[in-house]
Amino acid sequence: MIETRQLSKRYGEFTAVDAITFKVEPGQVLGFLGPNGAGKSTTMKMIAGFLGPSSGSASVCGHDVVDDALAAKRVTGYLPEGAPSYGEMTTRAFLNFIAEARGIRGARRAQRVEEVIERLHLHNVLEQSIETLSKGFKRRVGLAQAIVHDPAVLILDEPTDGLDPNQKFEVRNLINAMAKDKTIVVSTHILEEVQAVCTRAVIIARGKILADATPAELEARSRYHQAVSLTTTNLAGAKDVLARVADVAAVEYDTITRRLTAIPKPGRQIFAPISELLQAQGIAVSELQLESGRMDEVFRTITHGDLGEDLAEEARA
Amino acid sequence: MSNILTVFKRELASYFATPVAYVFIVIFLLLAGAFTFYIGNFYQTNQADLLPFFTFHPWLYLFLVPAVSMRLWSEERKSGTIELLLTLPITMWQAVVGKFLAAWAFIGIALALTFPIWITVNYLGSPDNGVIFASYLGSFLMAGAFLAIGSCISACTRNQVVAFILTVVVCFLFLLAGYPLVLNAISVIAPQGLVDAVSGLSFLSHFAAIAKGVIDLRDLVYFGLTIAFWLYASAVVIDLKKAD
Lengths: 317, 244
Hints:
The complex is a heterodimer of chains A (about 325) and B (about 240).
Chain A: E1 2-11, E2 14-24, E3 29-33, H1 40-48, E4 55-60, E5 63-64, H2 69-74, E6 76-79, H3 91-101, H4 106-119, H5 135-147, E7 153-157, H6 165-178, E8 183-188, H7 191-197, E9 200-205, E10 208-213, H8 215-220, E11 228-232, H9 235-244, E12 248-254, E13 259-264, H10 271-281, E14 285-290, H11 295-316
Parallel strand pairs in A: 3-8, 3-9, 6-7, 7-8
Antiparallel strand pairs in A: 1-2, 1-4, 4-5, 9-10, 11-13, 11-14, 12-13
Helix pairs in contact in A: 3-4, 9-10
Chain B: H1 2-17, H2 20-39, H3 51-54, H4 57-69, H5 71-79, H6 81-85, H7 92-112, H8 115-124, H9 129-156, H10 160-175, H11 180-189, H12 192-199, H13 203-211, H14 217-241
Helix pairs in contact in B: 1-7, 2-4, 2-7, 4-9, 4-10, 5-9, 7-9, 7-14, 9-10, 9-13, 9-14
């Protein structure tokens, strides 16, 4: 379990993290979303015990990260941003070092290290020095060190950054597999990742929490929630049909994907009437899709709204 | 204790995983030999002692120890591994002491590899091995003091070149603290009491005492305190500068 209360970090005049309060329970995967420089990494560094908070507090499994730092660090696995590791060491030596520093020794160490090697498919690079590894392997070594002690809490700062799609898929599977009994916080700015692994998403910008909801709830905030998209050769006919459905608020046409999108009035369902009317009018569509919402649009609205206010404030001043 | 050992082992192994160790040891041995035989006139003095050998150690350390210490913390900062190290369940002082001891042990290994000169002098004559042992001890302690200074300065910057140059300068001042170069400068601005205090800080005079074979508790305490002070300062600096 992770709990933060009014957690803040200030550097002189600049406030990197501004009174953040949240709680993550075992079994939850919390996605930390936000633009670059939003305070995601700083928050994670404070929970991991690397940076001390300027005010407020954070605790991991009931251990305060400042007053009971060692106990908190013992139950935490942490992948820092960029997955740093000692480049001159071999993968095996590095994992052995981390396990030993985490108090795992003897036969249990061998067993745990073997297990993470298995989980992250590191067999072929065990005797290679880490600096010679590809970016994907370095990231996997970083993940391996974070889970070598089977921590109750896992903090992963951009775990899939720089990975190719296959590797991303594997890392997400790994997170999902571990999610059952662990408390996991993942930061990312890849929105599809939130839907793929997170049970809950927190959007932060400029050090403040702007939204805290499940990915589905966030999507529901989109103006595209319950929208209907279609592709057809009879563009004029389809537009005519969409205009005749009462609950359609607006119609958009994307010239690149050549899709028509009808946006419903808030709280209304338009899929059934549209599909019935299309059929009645005999307009052939090659695709008809009900949208759940567009995460990127929600993200932009939430984080830009904040920026807009600030610009307005500056203009007044 | 076991945490210090874990950090120590990793750090020491990392010296030998890169060319750093081998280049350092070879250069150290070559220079120590060259100074002893060509500048110290080891043969010409016709004395069965190692004074010409130990006399140049402070000057050798002045440039070689900062080359070892410069990477201690600045490399951790630059590569980001400091974040990894300090989020492991080990305390700050365990990390600082473990890394320092590894660097010190490494220099100890280089120093121990000068043993042929000890064999030589025993072959040529019958030196006072007690004095030689004391000199080795003094030399090792002085290296530790240099290293502790270097550890602190390395913690101040992520740039190894800056760390190297600043460490050389600070070590140089400490070496010559008892000499006019430093004392005259200080006496202009400080009262006599402080000038005396500074003159007591000289590495050279404390080393010279031990190198003569006189193991005075005060000299041992001096080096011990110097090391402890600079390591404490390292921990403070690391803590302050973690964020940037």
